[in-house]
Design goal:
The protein has ten helices and 19 strands. By secondary structure, it is of the alpha/beta class. The longest helix has 17 residues.
Length: 369
């Protein structure tokens, strides 16, 4: 456990030195392009403000978020941070986007922003080069880009952007997207151009242009779903708890909901206070492992809302209070978010975003019957 943290329940710690090291690595890979740090979804569950500050100190020049609410929250902690809101503004938010760069993905969105803007706003025109999601077609992007380039009003042309669909897995499709973006950028008025995510920053040199937008790799997670060390990345997040109790099961006795585990002989089990309310997926019951005493221990019972149960064995070498590492390192062993992702048939992004604090932001309302 990190000094000063209570081990009574599940705890997440984030190594900001690792964030800084990963930021420097990505900045070097991107040169001469700028590195923009993606800190949406509260920094992928790592804490947007602290991560953003560490990234700036290590050479990032802008922070990217998904929503205007995220931008305003960041500005309370980092009032001088250059920000880009990458998702479309919700209708009615346009007059709140003051001195913040925003992505515009449709003609309708641009028209609303132009009508509402009274103070300076930087506009990044988002073109759809193959993602099939947010983004204008080429002709729309060129028309609005030309209008902004000639504008004397509060809106200024701040960038041309797009989004790769599969830069981590499909080189041919990525090349086609890159070709479309290059062709568009050659016709576009001068402005910063950016399309590369973490995978493209590390693996597609031609995609770096003027800036790269790095998220997952900055947190020390592999954009390819493999071992982060293969790319020199250092995982920043550690998820741990402590043994709350050890107990002995007799032959034929079970533990947990549904009696998933029934002892075939007398064995010892350990109980740890971390469950699916803390972000430990229930679907990993019987499959995941934890680290206790430098050894992997299989979680044998059904993971419940607040607790998990791991197998110790015939002899008990575990005591209450011993650290239990869910994600992170202990002795010479490591459990990574990528391992959880494979067990859940998902991606490491979802794993870290779903590691949940017990306190959430919930708006309570009373609706008329």
């Amino acid at each position: 456990m990190v000094a000063g943290l209570r081990p009574a329940r599940a705890t997440v710690t984030v190594d900001l030195a690792a964030i800084a090291a990963n930021t420097r690595l990505l900045r070097e890979a991107a040169r001469p392009a700028e590195l923009w740090a993606v800190v949406k979804a509260d920094g992928y569950g790592h804490g947007a403000a602290a991560v953003g500050r560490a990234a700036f100190d290590a050479g990032a020049s802008r922070l990217c978020v998904a929503t205007l609410d995220e931008a305003h929250a960041l500005l309370r902690d980092l009032p001088d941070a250059p920000l880009l809101v990458m998702s479309p503004l919700v209708a009615g938010e346009e007059d709140l986007a003051v001195e913040i760069d925003v992505a515009v993905s449709s003609v309708e969105g641009f028209t609303r922003l132009r009508s509402a803007a009274r103070l300076p706003v930087g506009v990044h025109i988002k073109a759809d080069t193959g993602m099939g999601r947010w983004g204008m077609d080429e002709d729309e992007a060129l028309r609005i880009g030309a209008e902004l380039a000639d504008s004397t009003g509060p809106l200024r042309l701040a960038g041309l952007m797009s989004h790769f669909a599969s830069s981590e897995s499909d080189a041919d499709f990525t090349a086609r997207q890159l070709e479309r973006f290059e062709r568009l950028s050659e016709q576009f008025p001068p402005c910063p151009r950016h399309i590369a995510n973490s995978a493209a920053t590390l693996g597609v040199p031609g995609a770096r242009f003027d800036a790269v937008r790095c998220g997952i790799a900055m947190y020390g997670l592999s954009p390819y779903g493999g071992d982060p060390a293969e790319h020199g990345l250092t995982p920043a997040l550690r998820f741990e708890t402590a043994v709350a109790q050890v107990k002995r099961l007799g032959q034929g006795e079970s533990t947990g909901y549904g009696r998933r585990f029934v002892a075939e002989r007398p064995v010892w089990i350990g109980l740890a206070p971390a469950g699916y309310a803390d972000g430990v997926p229930r679907m990993m019951s019987g499959e995941m492992e934890v680290l206790v005493g430098g050894r992997r221990r299989r979680v044998v019972a059904t993971i419940s809302m607040d607790q998990l149960t791991f197998l110790i064995g015939d002899a008990c070498d575990v005591r209450p209070g011993d650290p239990v590492v869910l994600i992170g390192e202990q002795a010479d062993e490591a459990i990574r978010a990528e391992e959880w992702a494979r067990l859940c048939e998902t991606i490491n992004y979802e794993i870290v975003c779903d590691i949940a604090p017990r306190r959430r932001r919930v708006e309570h309302v009373i609706l008329d019957a």
